[in-house]
Amino acid sequence: MTSTKKTAISRRSTLGLLGGAALAPAVLPGLSGFAQAQSSAPIKIGFQLHRTGIGAAYGRWYERTSNAAVARINEMGGINGRPVELVIEDDGTDPKRGAEVVEKFATQHECDIGFGTLFSHVVYGSAPRAGELKLPYFVCSEGHHVASGALNRYVLQPGITDVKSQVQAMAPFVADNLGKKVTMIFPDFAFGHDHRDFFSEAIEAQGGEVVAKIAIPPTETSFTKYFPQIPRETEVIYHVMVGPAVLTFVKEMGEFFGPSRPEIFGFIDSLEAVDLSSPGLEFLEGTYFWEGNPRYAQADQSDHDKAYRAAIGIDDNGASLTDSADVSTYAHMFSCWETLNVIKRGMETAGYQGPADRVKLIEAIEDMTDMAHSDDHPQGAKLFNGKTHQVFGHQYISQVEEGRLNVKHTTAIEDGFYEDEVDYTAQSF
Amino acid sequence: MEFGPHLMLAALEGAITAAILALTAVGLSLTFGVMRVVNVAHGEFFMLGAVAAWFISTTIGGHPAWGFIAAVVLAPLIIGLLAASADWLVLKRLDYDPERTIVATIGLLYIIQQGALIGFGPNAQPVEPPFSHRIALPWFEWTEAGFEMYYPWGLSTNSYKLFIIFAAAMLLLGLWLIMTRTKVGLVMRATQQDRDMATAFGIPVERIYALTFGLGAALAALGAVLIVPVQQAYYLMGHDPLLLSFIVVIIGGLGSLRGTVLAALLIGMSDGIISVFFSPTLAKIIATLLVAMVLVFRPQGLFGKGVH
């Protein structure tokens, strides 16, 4: 028994050695690149992080994901032979502080680029300053702000599909399977308004209608008082909520309906970083969720997703390997991982050496189109639109079954296409 | 939702707001009445109560009821002691000067809030209620078939929410008994009426001040322990209770306990009803407008006794 084991191990290690030898040429150009690089100083990526404030739960996981992605990039030889370093600044999920943080990246830390912002009001607050400082600013936010043309040429969103595209891709599923009369509950700021405007449009295109729109401030802590605005004719509740009190929101919604709930379609935002088995969430059984990336490992899980989970330290239920109660923001945080890989590819294509090459970096990324499903893009294949600076990908619709989310429908990338609203490439730098 | 069930739900929500607000505001009113200290950090003691409840209940584990009972007893005690030591450490050194204590309690607010951020973290944490049963409430309507009873969507409450209202009422009654029937209450009222005279009669005014400050904070903490199972503990949750408590105390009359409780009922119920029928923002606008009106036409508050 022991001897077989030994043989197995030695065979494996031999294979490993062989593999290493095969990989060596692939690594060598990187090594020689390191030698040729004009500077071996690290490439500094300013990471605008929601470490505190209403986005803190996302911030915790955006940080872990980005650290894992950077560790992987550095293991593979860095970017253009230079190591990558994240310079983290907390923005308190506050737009005013966001602009100051961008300024710190550009002037104080001398970062090459800025990266990582999620909450759309912080993006709106920070993006103009990034443009003025000519700092490439990569957001991981979902908001339609980039593709709408409201921002500037220095702002890109290459890691996650925007809300307009997401809801357009999903509206047919809602109309065909759940119902046509929808009441929307959404947070009362830019991100929620994107949902309100674009889902209303999309469901009308499917012959449905939104019968009520209920806006709730993201800082709210008590929600029962909002629910009576739900009209009796409602067939489907469409909910998307963010902020520290999301668990209370969903619980109180369950309590409000009791045993006779309508169909419910939610954005997993309403329960990101929350354990689905929390007491009070039992009523969600059978309801549907949008997921940017399936939290629970599915039967057809790809090797890329496996590698990605392992790199960050996440189990098959989407929680931390070290603490099963520490649930991740799995549906969103892949955007950090993928954005960093896009940055790497862009910098390599542009032959990026320092801040003088920032324009070349943006142009290199604007030229990108296809992004294949790979370890760099574990969420799925994507298509980047250089004109609108926005990426388009697959969306997942999952149903709660026995307390876990099982994917029922995956949208095609084309389902989320819409007419370009801006051509950033026509703008001057 | 039809008007009838809608109003009933609004009234229930309002009653919960009013109950918690009454406890919190009475604490604020007490510190102002007895000590003439405007405690800007009052909301942070509320937050600390919620955080302590979370900490105690997760440490104890087991059935949520044990954690809850321990939190009801321990959290106000710990927060009260903390506040009393803050009084001894800070406010006493400032001779309870009204202006300087405002600045000092603003400082306390930031210290406590950032301390909670460092120790407790930036995430909201849920606390399980000791018991919770959904109670669906029926409604009646006249249809062609005659008089009918039905269960409208959403017309429901929860046994724990009803318990909050009951518990707050009992606690306020207890406080009223302490203030009017015990020696401690007598001494506190004497200090409130005339500090110098109280000192002359041998009342240890400084100890009474520390006790009052601690009691005020403990009441806020108790309010938070009661509400945290329906909300969540969060390091920024002290803001709204502070604002609403000030509104209530100003309307009710500074230092008047009866006035504070009645104003809490008024503000809590109107907040519940207006935010259900219109919007929570409008509820805050109206409450603030009410404060302005009271300040203009009746500066001593609705139940205040006027300036001495």
Describe the structure.
The complex is a heterodimer of chains A (429) and B (308). Chain A folds into 2 domains: 2-162 and 331-393, Response regulator (Rossmann fold, 3-Layer(aba) Sandwich); 163-298 and 396-410, 3-Layer(aba) Sandwich (Rossmann fold). In chain A, the strands form 3 sheets. Chain A has a 7-stranded mixed β-sheet with strand order 7-6-8-9-10-14-15. With 429 residues, chain A is α/β, with parallel strands linked by helices. Chain A has helices spanning 2-36, 56-75, 95-108, 120-132, 163-177, 190-205, 246-257, 303-312, 330-350, 358-366, and strands at residues 43-49, 84-90, 113-115, 137-138, 155-156, 181-187, 209-216, 236-239, 263-267, 288-291, 370-371, 382-385, 390-393, 396-401, 404-410. In chain A, α2 (56-75) runs parallel beside α9 and α5 packs across α6 (190-205). Chain A is globular. Helices cover 38% and strands 17% of the residues of chain A. Chain A is built from 10 helices and 15 strands. Chain B is mainly alpha-helical and 308 residues long. Chain B has one domain. Helices cover 71% and strands 5% of the residues of chain B. Chain B has 11 helices and 4 strands, in the order ααααββββααααααα. In chain B, the strands form 2 sheets. Chain B has a two-stranded antiparallel sheet. The longest helix of chain B is centred in the N-terminal third of the chain and has 33 residues, at 3-35. Chain B is globular. Chain A binds chain B through residues 51-53, 56-57, 59-60, 217, 219-222, 224-225, 227-230, 232, 244-245, 247-248, 255-258, 260, 273, 278-280, and chain B through 1, 6, 9-10, 13, 117, 121-124, 126, 128, 132, 134, 136, 151-154, 156, 158, 230-232, 234, 236-237, 240, 272, 275-276, 280. Chain B: Keywords: Amino-acid transport, Cell membrane, Membrane, Transmembrane, Transmembrane helix, Transport. Chain B: It is found in: Cell membrane.
